[in-house]
């Protein structure tokens, strides 16, 4: 029972009420007391105040130590989480860079194909141009053929532009 009383005092649970019980007025504070004994009215308050202060100091230090330990563990977990997050960001950036490189390679290959298609179209056009020039020379004097020739030139250039655009966007 004495340890429970001391624990109650140490935790601050009605310690002043327990101290008042030790300061009863109708008690015998002689050395050979057997019944209704009490301590000196000067010693009891000093004992309780010193005990409470020491117990509170120890309990506060224990609580602070526990809190600091948990704070340190949570800080360590947060730093681990931050490192993991940084690693994930680095991996995502690497993946994005790799995807960008692949897209650029595909675009370059597509442009090379479109350039080769363009070169092929130019070769075809150069082959057809002498035929068109001979056609123009033959029909220069003919005024009626002139609008037909103009529309032929426009449609040929339109087809060439369409081929170039389709090869670029495909």
UniProtKB/TrEMBL annotation:
Organism of provenance: Macrostomum lignano
PANTHER family: CA[2+]-CHANNEL PROTEIN ALPHA[[1]] SUBUNIT T, ISOFORM F, VOLTAGE-GATED CATION CHANNEL CALCIUM AND SODIUM
GO biological process, one term: calcium ion import
Gene3D superfamilies, per database record: 1.10.287.70
Stretches the record annotates as Disordered: 78-112
Record localization: Membrane
UniProt lineage: Eukaryota, Metazoa, Spiralia, Lophotrochozoa, Platyhelminthes
Record protein name field: Ion_trans domain-containing protein
Residue ranges, compositional bias (Basic and acidic residues): 86-112
Topological category with respect to the lipid bilayer: Multi-pass membrane protein
Listed transmembrane segments: 46-68
């Amino acid at each position: 029972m004495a340890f429970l009383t001391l624990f109650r005092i140490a935790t601050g649970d009605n310690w002043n009420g327990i101290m008042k019980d030790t300061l009863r007025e109708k008690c015998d504070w002689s050395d050979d007391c057997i019944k209704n004994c009490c301590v000196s009215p000067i010693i009891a308050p000093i004992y309780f105040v010193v005990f409470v202060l020491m117990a509170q100091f120890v309990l506060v230090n224990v609580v602070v130590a526990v809190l600091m330990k948990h704070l340190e563990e949570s800080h360590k977990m947060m730093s681990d989480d931050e490192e993991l997050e940084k690693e994930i960001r680095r991996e995502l950036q690497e993946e994005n860079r790799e995807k960008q490189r692949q897209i650029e390679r595909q675009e370059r290959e597509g442009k090379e194909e479109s350039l080769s298609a363009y070169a092929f179209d130019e070769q075809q056009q150069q082959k057809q141009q002498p035929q068109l020039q001979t056609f123009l020379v033959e029909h220069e004097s003919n005024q009626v053929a002139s609008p037909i020739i103009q529309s032929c030139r426009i449609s040929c250039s339109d087809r060439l532009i369409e081929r170039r655009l389709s090869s670029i966007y495909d």
